[in-house]
Amino acid sequence: MASILSNPIEYLKGVGPLRAELLQKELGIHTFQDLLEHFPYRHVDRTKINLIREIDASTEFIQVVGRIVSVDLVGDKRSRRLVAGLRDSSGVLELVWFQGIHGVQKLVQVGGEFLVYGRVSFFQGSPQLTHPEIEVLHGQHVTPPDFLEPVYPTTEKLKVRGLGGRQLGKLTQTLFNMLKEKDLPENLPASALTWPDPETGRPMGFLSRYEAYRQAHFPTQPMLFRQAVDRLKFEELFMAQLRLGLIKSKRHRSSHGVVFGQVGEFFNRFYTHYLPFELTGAQKRVLKEIRRDTGSGRQMNRLLQGDVGSGKTMVALLSMLLALDNGFQACLMAPTEILARQHYEGIAALLKDMPVEVRLLTGSSRSKSRKEVLGMASEGRLHILIGTHAVLEEAVQFQRLGLAIVDEQHRFGVAQRARLWNKAAVPPHVLVMTATPIPRTLAMTAYGDLDYSVMDELPPGRQPISTVHRYEDRRPQVMDFIRHEIGKGRQVYVIFPLIEESEKVDYENLMKGYENVKAWFPEPKYWISMVHGRQSNEERDTNMQRFLKGDTQIMVATTVIEVGVNVPNATVMVIESAEKFGLSQLHQLRGRVGRGTEKSFCILLTSPRLGKEARERMSILTETNNGFKIAEKDLEIRGPGDIEGTRQSGLLNFKLANIVQDKYWLELARDRVMELLDKDPDLAMEENRALKAFLQSQHGKTAWSKIS
Ligand code: ADP
Ligand code: MG
């Protein structure tokens, strides 16, 4: 049965084809339902009749009832206006019109009684209403509306067509007059409709769905408005997490995964003879989780959150060896060529005395070696393939791919993740590793379909990185400090911003910066590497290699080296124009040092003129090294829309909810969803029938449904 809410907006009284087209174009409103979900951004109180005497400097809007005592046309032809005096029992108020004077004159006549509403402005000290809304009262008793009047977001084009912020409310009103409770049936199960008051713990109840929509648009009391919005936010968050939860629970129960049943020769031999250090507790715990997942017969889809430097690469390597032990191939993907190459070299070196075939595949692999690698992969002779996005190409086929690892997730989209699944008849296990932590609330919503591991422990012997913030005029002291560290045999990074919109200027700054560093550190005593995106691969590579080997002491670079690069002897990170970077990015850059046992430093250089927010970012970084804390702050400051990798996904475009401000509802929804799926993973129970029907009716209408 089609719901009235799926009717095209054109058929709502007062819309018609022309306005319908505009509503679609301007606000994406196609159906009655869309109009219902176009929420007001504020309300004005028209439930009261005010007295003119009550107006003071703080009055914004006023609604009065009075009689017209004067009407005058003033000004010359070029700036004519109509001024009327309205008197109530307490005083007189001026009403002013600049346009449509002719029509107003007909309506507004001395002696007439009117209900008048408008925004108060002051002209030479006395209050007036310009272009007020007026309604003739033919002596009848005035009953103001019993709800707060909604004002809706709109556009200039719609305003011209008579669909301003308040006029849209008239349409919504028309719609509501047609709606019955059954048109907006309850979709939440009873178990989700009550919740404990966060302060008193007393059980509270949500408004019904119908009532919530009504009160969100036309609240009869401010309190009910808040309750309505809370209910709708909760519902939004609940449905979003339920969708992801269903994907996850379905996969847990029915997805086929290849089974890594045993730990064998590859893993054990490496672990006993070639593992260069003792694993941290966190690394061991995550490996156990991976082993449990991959041995279960279901496909693993796990997100590994670890702070910078927590040793995710070793977890990746050991997991891949586990795959080999069970007769499968493995691949590891990195977001940049530099990083892929570094992983390749590091892993190949660690495995050099083991009978493991490891190869690298990137966009710039020469066709001969590319052909060889592809052949080895498809014939099953290749054990481990390391590479960039190039690995995802159709041409890359494995004989028995069992595990795919994605390093530094936030540059890989959801869709790319899905492409990995198609690389084998039975989809391989997937491990996704983040570069820097993502806040828990964000991970819950954006990656709620993945299982979740955390590495919150750094390898032993690390000294915390000291971070300082310096203004650019202190550069000489900073350079002295660098010289001192180089004197001790250490290496240094100097990072310049590269922001797409100002690319040209940024390159000029990078070059100037390079010359400047060179002036402080002249050859042949010092050698400098430079790495940036405009270089050829060979050039970048040579520079990188020289720094890795210690042939150069200083690395001047853009953020191309942001993620993953590992040079344990580097102890100083200087970030130029640090105010241009986001928190997570700064933390990630800082993570390039502090990778060995020597004390490391990060120096944030900024202009002395800093905005409040930039100042806050600098102070957060100087206060903490904890990536999890920084991620939370980043989310607070920037909001969810801005966090890299989530923007494109469309997963966080809630209509009402905000995962930063509505953390309480998010977590409550999460808990309720988990309880529910524990009890009824298929939504087969009677009490969840309405919920199931609702989800099915929404299929295809949200970004969420696209990922299932
Ligand atoms: P990230 O998690 O940022 O990717 P890496 O995997 O690059 O971190 O590891 C950072 C550094 O720590 C590397 O030099 C690595 O060899 C080292 N490392 C990793 N695990 C341990 C450990 N358990 N003990 C000592 N050093 C470790
Ligand atoms: Mg890494």
UniProtKB/TrEMBL annotation:
Keywords: ATP-binding, DNA damage, DNA recombination, DNA repair, DNA-binding, Helicase, Hydrolase, Isomerase, Nucleotide-binding. Residues 293-455 form the Helicase ATP-binding domain. It is an enzyme of class 5 (isomerase). Its EC number is 5.6.2.4. One of its GO terms (biological process) is DNA recombination. PROSITE patterns: HELICASE_ATP_BIND_1, HELICASE_CTER. The keyword ATP-binding applies. It comes from the Bacteria. It catalyses: ATP + H2O = ADP + phosphate + H(+); Couples ATP hydrolysis with the unwinding of duplex DNA by translocating in the 3'-5' direction. Residues 474-636 form the Helicase C-terminal domain. SUPFAM superfamilies: Nucleic acid-binding proteins (SSF50249), P-loop containing nucleoside triphosphate hydrolases (SSF52540). SMART domains: DEXDc, HELICc. PANTHER family: ATP-DEPENDENT DNA HELICASE HOMOLOG RECG, CHLOROPLASTIC (PTHR47964:SF1). Plays a critical role in recombination and DNA repair. Helps process Holliday junction intermediates to mature products by catalyzing branch migration. Has replication fork regression activity, unwinds stalled or blocked replication forks to make a HJ that can be resolved. Has a DNA unwinding activity characteristic of a DNA helicase with 3'-5' polarity. Belongs to the helicase family. RecG subfamily. This is ATP-dependent DNA helicase RecG.
